Amino acid sequence: MSAIYWRDTLIAGLFLVATATSVAAQEQELLTLEDALSRSGVTGEVDAISANPRMVGPRAEADAARSLVRQARLRPNPEVSLEVENIAGSGAFSGLRATEYTLAVGQRLELGNKRGARVEAARAQAQLANLRADLSDVELGYLVRERYVAAAAAASRVELARDVVERNEELARIAGLLVEVGREPPLRALRAEAALAEARAELQASQAASLATRTALASLWGVQDVPPVVPADFPDIRPPGAALAAASGLQLRVARAESRAAAADIDRERSLRVPDPVVSAGVRRFEESNDSAFLVGVSIPLPFSNRNQGNIAAAEARLRAANAREAVALADFEQSVTRARAQYLAAEARVETLSRTSLPQAEEALRLVRIGYRNGRFPLIEVLSAAEARDAIREALIAAQQDRGQAAAELIRLAAQ
Description:
alpha+beta, 68% helix
């Protein structure tokens, strides 16, 4: 079977799915951008946040990092030891007559500011986890805005395709009447029917695309049933202005926090090269004479070969990598801001020109040609050409509005603090 057959079969299947959900969708209220942000938890709804795994995961990681800070503040636990010597031997040491019991308590003393370095490293990791959780919220907000704009564009294309079908139905009816009265050759009617069939196929494809975009939007808050209904009107997304003047976006703050965490890890690893002594004190009882004696002791590792030099070198390498990523993040941030601002301004200019000049002129030209066609003054090809020109401008306007909305969403993401 040809590729065209499989394409048409797929489009028809998607159209059936869209048709099956249209009745339920009509009963739903139109989903606004504010509703989408609220359902996903971006606007801070507690129930939505707790139900959205895209937000639960990063916040749980931040909670874990804060717990590690509390753990890092704790000191080493003391150790209790009990030793029994000279038991069950031979000769004078047989039985329990010569047994010696030693009960001691030992405490490891952390030297080299181990505890302070450990706490600072844990705090740096907690700050990094908090920033990453905030960044995940910002990224989710960007996805909601981007997919909502895509869904609105798809809904606009459905309206455009539906208008084209209605127009071609009217043209096909008029062409049939003109052929019957002998004012048009039969080829004109065939051309009109072919244009109508093509328009209906395009309507099915646009409806399937609209269903796909709405499903992608609903997946951001875990909806598995009928996707929400998104209106064809584009949301008014205002990009930030002065906030982009300084390079202080959340992405840069995360990169800087990674460098600080890597530097704190170096201090922690360096503190571990200092050995920790263990101080102990206890009492020993001699079973044979019923005497007792106090014991004190100290033990300390000898750092002959292992001075934690491998972990220190690895931490220093990770700091160099983090500094490099920070420099790359700064360059990428500035480039992304410049590109997104240029895309927004260009899309804004296209929207202004297409909506205020190009589209009204094309609408008026199509209206005049259709009037002339009904009166037999213009052939069908003139009407189709004018209609295609108007439709191309409407499609360009939809694309420009989509580009403007997505560029604004990108600017909001980059300006997040």
